[in-house]
Amino acid sequence: MLNGIPKILSPELLKVLCEMGHSDRLVIGDGNFPVPTMGKDAVIIRADGHGVPELLDAILEVFPLDPYVDKPVHLMEVMPGDNVETPIWDEYKKIIAKHDERGANAIGYYERFEFYEQTKTVYCIIASGEQALYANIMLQKGVVK
C-alpha cells in the first residue's frame, strides 16, 4: 500500500496504468461485458467486487485524460429499442468533472458494435462487477505532468 493512492487500485492495475503511454486507452467493462472475447490483445485485469464508478474515480486520481482530443471518454450507446435507463452515466459525468475541467463535454458515444471494435485496440480491459446496464466506459490517457 502507498500513501495517496486509492486502495481500490491493485498493484497489478497500478503497474498497467503506469505502463500506458499518451493516447493509450483502457476500458472498464460492466459485469456483462465480453472481456475475454474483446481482450485477446489487451491486458485483462479482474476487479469483480467493484463497481465502475468507484474504479473510474480511483483511476482518474492518477490517470490524466488526453487533452489533445475532444472526447477522451467514450460510453456505449443504448441500442435502439432497448428500453434501458442509464442513470450511472450521470455518476460518470460528476466523477469526470471532478478530475477534468471539460466535465461532460469530455464524453463521446460509440454505437454498441463500434464500441466493441474500438475495444479490440485498447491496452487494458478491467472486468468489473458492475450490475448497471450500458455501464462500459473507455478512457484515453493524457500526458502525466
From TrEMBL:
Keywords attached to this entry: Isomerase
GO BP: fucose metabolic process
Domain of life of the native organism: Bacteria
Keyword Lipid metabolism included in the entry's annotation: no
GO molecular function: D-ribose pyranase activity; fucose binding; L-fucose mutarotase activity
Catalytic activity: alpha-L-fucose = beta-L-fucose; beta-D-ribopyranose = beta-D-ribofuranose
Protein name per Swiss-Prot or TrEMBL: Fucose isomerase
Species assigned in the record: Bilifractor porci
Lineage start: Bacteria, Bacillati, Bacillota, Clostridia, Lachnospirales
